[in-house]
Amino acid sequence: xxxxxxxxxxxxxxxxxxxxxxxxxxxxxxxxxxxxxxxxxxxxxxxxxxxxxxxxxxxxxxxxxxxxxxxxxxxxxxxxxxxxxxxxxxxxxxxxxxxxxxxxxxxxxxxxxxxxxxxxxxxxxxxxxxxxxxxxxxxxxxxxxxxxxxxxxxxxxxxxxxxxxxxxxxxxxxxxxxxxxxxxxxxxxxxxxxxxxxxxxxxxxxxxxxxxxxxxxxxxxxxxxxxxxxxxxxxxxxxxxxxxxxxxxxxxx
Amino acid sequence: xxxxxxxxxxxxxxxxxxxxxxxxxxxxxxxxxxxxxxxxxxxxxxxxxxxxxxxxxxxxxxxxxxxxxxxxxxxxxxxxxxxxxxxxxxxxxxxxxxxxxxxxxxxxxxxxxxxxxxxxxxxxxxxxxxxxxxxxxxxxxxxxxxxxxxxxxxxxxxxxxxxxxxxxxxxxxxxxxxxxxxxxxxxxxxxxxxxxxxxxxxxxxxxxxxxxxxxxxxxxxxxxxxxxxxxxxxxxxxxxxxxxxxxxxxxxxxxxxxxxxxxxxxxxxxxxxxxxxxxxxxxxxxxxxxxxxxxxxxxxxxxxxxxxxxxxxxxxxxxxxxxxxxxxxxxxxxxxxxxxxxxxxxxxxxxxxxxxxxxxxxxxxxxxxxxxxxxxxxxxxxxxxxxxxxxxxxxxxxxxxxxxxxxxxxxxxxxxxxxxxxxxxxxxxxxxxxxxx
Lengths: 253, 437
Fold this sequence. Notes:
The complex is a heterodimer. By secondary structure, chain A is of the alpha/beta class. Chain A has nine helices and ten strands. Chain A has helices spanning 41-48, 69-76, 94-104, 109-122, 138-150, 168-181, 194-200, 218-229, 235-252, and strands spanning 3-11, 17-26, 29-34, 56-61, 64-65, 79-82, 156-160, 186-190, 203-208, 211-216. The longest helix of chain A has 18 residues, at 235-252. Chain B is mainly alpha-helical. Chain B folds into two domains: 3-261, no CATH class; 266-436. Chain B has 16 helices and six strands. Chain B has helices at residues 3-10, 20-37, 48-57, 62-77, 95-126, 133-157, 162-175, 204-227, 235-253, 283-300, 319-323, 325-328, 341-353, 374-391, 409-418, 420-424, and strands at 198-200, 259-261, 266-271, 274-279, 309-312, 330-333. A four-stranded mixed β-sheet of chain B has the order 3-4-5-6. In chain B, strand 4, helix 10 and strand 5 (309-312) form a beta-alpha-beta unit. In chain B, helix 2 runs parallel beside helix 5 and helix 4 runs parallel beside helix 6 (133-157). The longest helix of chain B has 32 residues, at 95-126. The mean pLDDT of chain B is 90.
């Protein structure tokens, strides 16, 4: 299932446009979404997950037009979303949490138990299903969040900073999970971490000035930065090159 | 986790809530309801009018617990940060609150109804009057509406703070009936307990039912609106909220009559020249009333001082009829659920025969002390006579009054006949009593 944006515009009430003529197509596989603070990443994700209505331009999730209430309603069952910050109800077990999330996403109750088992196996938490969520580590909580978002088997999965705040070991586990999920669905990952993009994403989009200024593979992005700065894209080299990259993309857009 | 605990967790009776979230408040509600009705199980003269009103009256505190439980569930399980409470999720705005409310209301209302069952069985066994379905439906709908109001508090506050807010709000709403009668149409209960021979005014029950139905719809709609994203204005939602506001204001502009008299057919018998009548539904009380009043009248001895009739207040067609009872020679007895004929019938009969202590001019003070005011000592004579008369219902056993302790019934009767006028105007001193001189 594709996410298709055509000439998409959005401005919060009484403010300047956050998205200004954004045109982009996200296809199956893992796609990274990069951009500086205020570039409109969160707004774009909010539009995709139907938290905000798309008023100008077009935004499609498969055949569902997200500018209409009916389109948003239809798209929601095909969507899974893990916000950057989320909480779990500590009174519930891991399995109950995921099963309940599956039901909230529209699955029939009798199917939720099996769906939860499947999702927990997929994120590698099958053996922790009877634990209360209050005892989980940060990485385990993140994986429960992902399991909750994919228990109803969505065709499109949106992850906002899925590895933020995790230690290197946990980050690696989450990346493995996300990479696996991208094999048979569309996964859009918003992140600040270039390592995430390098290890996970088959395609990358960079938001600048309310538009997608760059869209291509990670090696193409790497080449663009190195062309410009002569520095490696990793570590502090990328940090220094990032502002110039955004500036350059802005000029191109 | 044990298999039985897992089964309990997954049971549709609780799912998706942890069982403790509903079992604790339900247990509390059951205990409160049983405690509130426990002393009534042994009552005489229970009737359906009283019971149907009790369905609302006894709910006053249990519904506060239910609202608190609903607020806790909403506060814990609809927080925006929760991974399964995102406003875009397909079931977030309607099915989720519906499911939560179904589990909480189901358990809390179920516990309340279970708590009311024993009193219902006892009433059914005595079986006077007919159930008032509208009053019961209004009370139960009110229970649901106020529980949902608690849930709304939880959705608004989205945290544990919601619990005291909901408890306080619902307690306040259920207490308004005691502030002013005009709140009665918007409350679970009447400000007093009605009983056989009365019924709720025709408009009150349906109005209350309609109000709580509207409140239920408006609250449910508001909850769904708050949990939805993006939020859209809905004319139907707006109309429901406006309708609730109008129904709240109306009873204050045009107050309702609360209850009307509904006297039923009488069952009567005659004894010693006095006609005793009770409501058909109180027929079982008639023998006790006659047996307890007749000896008191006999002990007084003056037949022209006796009432022509002793009637059950459930037979009265209006308050004036009861107030005018002495002028019409009718002694009205308050036969109602929980009444004690062994205490009340002799006391009322004695009260009819002896003058009011207030006539003595002692402002109700009764004293046999030698240094007491003369009028207080005369009041003691009247008071003692009443106690003595009442004791005659039980063969003149211990009545605890020293003035009449050694008095033989014949001597008392003779004295009453002799000093009738002075007794009526409270002019007899204790020293003048024949058996004390």
